Amino acid sequence: MDYASSDAPAVIGPRGTDMLLPYGARGVKIVVVGGFGVGKTTMVGTVSEIPPLTTEETMTQAGVGIDHNPGAQGKNTTTVALDFGRISINEELILYLFGTPGQERFWFLWNGIFEGALGAVVLVDTRRVEVCFEVVTRLEDRRVPFVVAVNSFPEAPQYPVEELRTALALSDSVPIVTCDARDRASCRDALLSLMVYLCTLAAAQETA
Fold first, then answer.
1. Which of 104, 160, 190, 200 has the fewest CB atoms nearer than 10 Å to its CB?
2. Pair 38, 125: CB distance under 8 Å
């Protein structure tokens, strides 16, 4: 370490590698939400530029009769707290991604996860659209802006956008995009769709 003189104190501060955000960058909290088994953990892990934090646990017989998992019987793990990842959109914008647990008995954790979130991505499995009804209602009640991303599961039925909009009772302004939770570029595009939507909402508020 260099000093201006032999008597000068050392400069104390974080090293560049210790800083959570690069200088001048803005961190934004985004939530990835949806029903059980729609691909939230997969999406966060796929798009994250850092090793993702996951809290998946093996499902046991203790959940029989408690958890309701229609259409996802082959899934043997579940998120019990949250998933966390990070992606840099550019040098000025970094998204911190928080995936919510899908099991209804863990939804009480949503209160903390949504604290400070700028927006959300709602993942939808068209084989089980009904599992997102309550999710959308909760977001609307909290007034959290969101986009809907239809996850491209193999052999999942494809519906016209307007049919999905009607099924989910969405307003015309809420974007609906397609997404493959296993593909990083596809996940990034879904997140960018959310950021564009948030910018549109902010501009509308400024001119109102």
1. 160
2. yes
CA distances from 22 to 28, 47, 91, 116, 195 (A): 13, 19, 8, 20, 20
Grade residue 53 by pLDDT with cuts at 50, 70 and 90.
confident
Span 68-89, mean pLDDT?
A: 65
Question: CA-CA distances (angstroms) from residue 134 to 34, 39, 58, 169?
Answer: 9, 17, 25, 11
H or E element that contains 186: helix 184-207
- DSSP string for 64-105: TTT---TT-TT--EEESS-EEEEEEEETTEEEEEEEPP-SGG
pTM of the shown model: 0.76
* DSSP-assigned letters across all residues of 129-180: GGGGHHHHHHHHHHT--EEEEEE--TT-----HHHHHHHTT--TTS-EEEE-
Cα 137 from Cα 126, distance rounded (Å): 18
Q: What is the pLDDT of residues 152-197, one digit of tens each?
A: 988 899 999 999 999 999 999 999 999 999 999 999 999 999 999 9
Residue 89 is predicted with a pLDDT of 87
Residue from 114, 193, 195 nearest 203 by CA? 195
Query: Is residue 63 very low, low, confident or very high in pLDDT (cuts 50, 70, 90)?
Result: very low
State how far the Cα of 87 lies from the Cα of 180, in Å rounded to an integer: 17
Amino acid 91 reads: E
